[in-house]
Amino acid sequence: MRHEDLSRGSARPATSRTLVIQAGARHGYAFPAMLAEADRLAFFQTTTALAAGQSPGPAMVLASRVFSRLRAALARRRAPLAPDLLAVAPGPDILRAGCRVTGAGHMRARLAQNAALGRAALVSSARWPRPTSLLAVDGGGGAAALARFRRSGVPIIVDIAVTPTALRTVADAARRHPDWADGAPSEREIRRFEEHYARLVAVADWIFYPSTAVLQGLETIPGFDPARAREVPYPVARSGAPATATEPGRVLFVGSDPLRKGLPDLAPSIRMAAVPLHLVVAGQLPRALCAHPDLCGATLLGHVPAARLAAEYARADILVLPSLAEGMPAVAVEAMAAGVPVVATQAAGTPVVHGVSGLIVPPNNPQALAHAMTKIVGDRGRRAQMSDAARRRAEAYRPESVARILLDALDHVEGGRS
To answer: How far apart are CA 15 and CA 77, in angstroms?
Structure first.
């Protein structure tokens, strides 16, 4: 059920408290922060993090001086919560890093981290009253620990951040574009990825998903019940600066995963368009791809900090996201908030309304991309209308708007309504 369909006033316990489990600083800790603001957070179990106003301990300071990646993580892992609502377990992060060092692979490392985080949450739960619901952000905690919480009578909500078909889609893209691929996922890794999401669906009482693209992926899992699913998007706090310096024909692509995000389709489409276009790529590409013939003439910015990205939105004529597998890209909402129309595939998970705030095109189709870009760039009146509509559409994804959607969804869960 889409978030627009949710009604208010569901019955729920008089004292509703949700336990949130999440690895890392995904979405800037938005969900636990929203619940804390509404006095609905039981506690937040995460990995390496600091509470608001908290200083790192001597051991963490020493470790961050030795490990530059830990130092960078601490800079962004400050949860906007009081210390008495925060349960921290750095062990899962250390375990994941160790798995990667030993060559265990991304998925095995992630599963090991999730299992360790789930065990930490079970231990931490003894310090707080039993929650009235549990929200596992991106499946945080893993299926085994979530099953134990469920057996104790706690309703389990699993947030699914990306389509469960993502890895298989990437493998297919690697076969189509071997010159763009830095290897491809093995069949074993793909199965492990898909089985992970199947286990999460099986243990969940409810599923939250951020976009139709993720819902369509969930529908491929046997046993998935759409009646027990709710669309709860992710908030985008940063509102783009007005695009006062727009350069006609300037096409912005944002992403460091070129194969999954469709750059092999976008790059050749620039020359197919019936209007002059200039491609700007914001994101760290593999060095070998920077010399790809299809990127000849493109501006490659490399990694772009958030402050500079806002300036790129202000210059862009359109943002193009021809992704093959996505969840809900914040860059689309940020660009729309700046008044930039978006051309995207349905699989990109953007909030674009086709023909209003941008255009939706089929995946794997450079000709369709070229046609869509031509329609917007070549018609300045249409582009202006889409710019205004994009700004209005982005308002629905501000934190206060998403907080209402999240709380309404939790009311339905805790009220037992489907």
So the answer is: 29
Q: Which of 45, 36, 33 is nearest to 16 (CA)?
A: 36
Highest mean pLDDT among 95-99, 101-105, 243-247, 398-402: 398-402
How would residue 2 be classed by pLDDT, with cut points 50, 70 and 90?
very low
pLDDT of residue 9: 39
Cβ pair 121, 141 in contact under 8 A:
yes
Written as one string, the DSSP assignment of 125-189 is GGGSPPPSEEEEGGGTTHHHHHHHHHHTT--EEEE--S-TTHHHHHHHHHHH-TTT-S----HHH
- Which residues, other chains included, contact 46 with Cβ-Cβ below 8 Å and sequence gap of 6+? 21, 22, 23, 24, 29, 79, 86, 87, 88, 89, 117
What one-character DSSP code corresponds to residue 50? B
Tokens of 185: 């996922």
Gap between the Cα atoms of 402 and 73, Å rounded = 26
**Whether this model's pTM surpasses 0.85:** yes
Q: What is the DSSP letter of 78?
A: B
Q: Which residues contact 273 (CB under 8 A, 6 or more apart)?
A: 370, 371, 373, 374, 377
Q: What is the largest CA-CA distance in the chain?
A: 64
Cβ atoms 358, 342 nearer than 8 A? yes
Give the amino acid at 250.
R
How far, rounded to the nearest angstrom, does the alpha carbon of residue 188 sit from its chain's CA centroid?
Answer: 24
Picking from 28, 193, 49, the residue whose alpha carbon sits closest to that of residue 110 is 193
Distance CA 186, CA 191 (A): 9
Q: What is the mean pLDDT of residues 105-121?
A: 92
Can you give the pLDDT at residue 160?
97
Give the chain's mean pLDDT: 89
